[in-house]
Specification:
Distance between the termini: 43 Å
Helix content: 25-40%
Structural class: alpha+beta
Shape: globular
CATH class: Alpha Beta
Strand content: 5-15%
Oligomer: single chain
Number of strands: 11
Order of helices and strands: HEHEEHEEEEEHHHEEHE
Largest sheet: 5 strands, mixed
C-alpha cells in the first residue's frame, strides 16, 4: 500500500496501532476487556450469511474501521477522510479523478458517504445523480470509501461498539432501509450516500489476496438466547 498510494495523501496505517483487529488473535475476553458488545447477529434466514454466527475476522475488520473513524474525528481538520483496505487496487489516475469528482459533487450539494468501489447486491436507482455518480442501493464491500467530516460524527454517534456488526452491513444500514428489521431498528437510515460509477477502486481477487475476515473462527455464543427469529 505504501508504494501504491499517491504520495500527496497523508496516510495512517492501522498496522501501526495495537487495537484488537486480527481475527486470529481475538477472543471474547479481548472484546469484553475493550468494552465491545456484539450485536445478536445469527437469525433464521435463507440468507446464509445472516444464518450463521459472526466470525472473529469480521469483528476485527469492523473494529479496524471504527478505529479509523475515531482517529480521523480526533485528529486533523480535512473535510474528507478516505478509508482503504489492504487489498484495494487504485486506478493510475486515482487522485486526479477523485479530486475532480469531489469538486463537482461539492458544487452539487452536501453528501455524507462516497463509495470509491463496492459490490452492488441490488440494482442502483435508475438515473445517475450526476454524470459519473449514482445513488447506491444495498451494497457490500468496504475496500474503498470516503466520509465527510460531519458524517464521522454521525457514524460515531451510532455507538457501533455497543452492537458490533460487519461493517459491510453497517454502512448500508445508514443510507437505505436495511432488509433486516433488527439492523434497520438499531442503525436507522441517516446518511446520504453516493458512489463513483465507474469505480475508482477495485479489490484484489480473494484467490490472490486471501481474506482475513473469512479465514477465521466463528464467535461462539455466550449462552442461550443467542438465536433470534426473523420477523
Amino acid at each position: 500500500m505504501t508504494s501504491t498510494l499517491p504520495p500527496e495523501l497523508k496516510v495512517t496505517f492501522t498496522s501501526d496501532w495495537s487495537g484488537p483487529f486480527d481475527g486470529h488473535d481475538l477472543t471474547r475476553n479481548h472484546l469484553d476487556a475493550a468494552g465491545y458488545t456484539l450485536f445478536p447477529w445469527q437469525i433464521e434466514s435463507d440468507n446464509l450469511w445472516w444464518a450463521r454466527p459472526l466470525k472473529y475476522g469480521e469483528v476485527g475488520c469492523t473494529l479496524a474501521h471504527l478505529a479509523c473513524w475515531r482517529d480521523a474525528a480526533q485528529t486533523g481538520d480535512e473535510p474528507f477522510v478516505i478509508v482503504l483496505e489492504d487489498d484495494a487496487v487504485l486506478l493510475a489516475a486515482f487522485l486526479e479523478q477523485l479530486l475532480a469528482g469531489l469538486h463537482r459533487l461539492t458544487r452539487r450539494g452536501p453528501f455524507d458517504l462516497l463509495y470509491l468501489g463496492r459490490f452492488p447486491l441490488e440494482p442502483d436507482h435508475d438515473r445517475p445523480v450526476l454524470e459519473g455518480f449514482v445513488s447506491p442501493a444495498y451494497s457490500h464491500c468496504t475496500f474503498g470509501y470516503l466520509l465527510t467530516r460531519p458524517a464521522l460524527d454521525l457514524v460515531l454517534a451510532t455507538h457501533l461498539e455497543e452492537a458490533v456488526v460487519p461493517v459491510d452491513e453497517f454502512l448500508p444500514s445508514l443510507y437505505i432501509d436495511h432488509p433486516r428489521p433488527d439492523l434497520r431498528a438499531r442503525f436507522p437510515r441517516q446518511l446520504t450516500a453516493l458512489a463513483f460509477d465507474p469505480p475508482l477502486v477495485s479489490q484484489r481477487p480473494k484467490g490472490e489476496a486471501g481474506s482475513d475476515t473469512e479465514d477465521s473462527a466463528f464467535v461462539k455464543p455466550t449462552g442461550t438466547g443467542s438465536r433470534t427469529r426473523r420477523r
